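Reminder to self: tokens first, then the designed residues, so the page reads top to bottom the way the pipeline ran.
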């Protein structure tokens, strides 16, 4: 299951950019790498001695890729190997990285929607990306991931949960659902408000739903009172 480096929205500097990881021995799977993430990874000594780094990117907003270049540089120059970046839009990721001076020989890019790989420490991992509803300007993806400890859905930034994901939750096919959730609630919101999340998820299923990407307006006590979990 996931550990979180940060759980805040883009402007919630107190909680840091939302980013999660699984680390087993010298293998790391990182989900998103926003502006505050590299600093925290170094502070927590998570990158030391790593032999394998996989980085899932949900979309290219700064609070999700702001320090991706640093993580790749650190892996390439200090740890001495290329990290694998998983992102379904090949062209977009290449051009973003090229534009910040990260050349293609420094990383491996996996851009299929359905990815399966086996790592000696993390075990077999299956990732199925799906497009999610966030903003008009760039594509955004959520994903279902099956790993040794269970099956999760991770929304990335999204103002909607697809029906297929809700059915999986209902049918017991998901152990946890991680959802971008905010206190602010207005027409055209690119994130999921707590109000909308309550309308979407039946009370009985809420203990499997973990709220993340929290803004300053969200009332954590209310989130918990409504039966949801909050990532730490
Ligand atoms: Zn975003
Ligand atoms: Zn974000």
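Designed residues (232 positions):
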């Amino acid at each position: 299951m996931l550990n979180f480096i940060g759980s805040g929205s883009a402007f919630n500097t107190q909680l840091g950019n939302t980013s999660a990881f699984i680390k087993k021995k010298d293998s790391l799977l990182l989900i998103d790498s926003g502006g505050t993430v590299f600093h925290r990874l170094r502070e927590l000594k998570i990158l030391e001695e790593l032999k394998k780094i996989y980085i899932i990117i949900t979309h290219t907003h700064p609070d999700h890729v702001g320090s991706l270049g640093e993580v790749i540089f650190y892996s390439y120059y200090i740890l001495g190997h290329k990290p694998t970046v998983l992102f379904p839009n090949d062209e977009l990721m290449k051009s973003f990285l090229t534009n910040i001076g990260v050349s293609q020989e420094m990383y491996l890019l996996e851009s299929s929607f359905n990815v399966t790989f086996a790592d000696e420490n993390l075990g077999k991992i299956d990732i199925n990306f799906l497009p999610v509803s966030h903003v008009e300007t760039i594509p955004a993806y959520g994903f279902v991931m099956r790993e040794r400890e269970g099956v999760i859905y991770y929304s990335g930034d999204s103002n909607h949960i697809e029906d297929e994901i809700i059915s999986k939750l209902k049918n017991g096919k998901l152990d946890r659902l991680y959802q971008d959730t905010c206190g602010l609630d207005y027409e055209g919101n690119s994130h999921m408000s707590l109000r909308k999340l309550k309308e979407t998820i039946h009370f009985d299923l809420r203990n499997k739903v973990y709220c993340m990407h929290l803004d300053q307006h969200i009332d954590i006590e209310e989130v918990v009172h409504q039966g949801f979990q909050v990532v730490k």
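Helices lie at 37-43, 62-65, 68-79, 90-99, 163-170, 194-200, 220-225.
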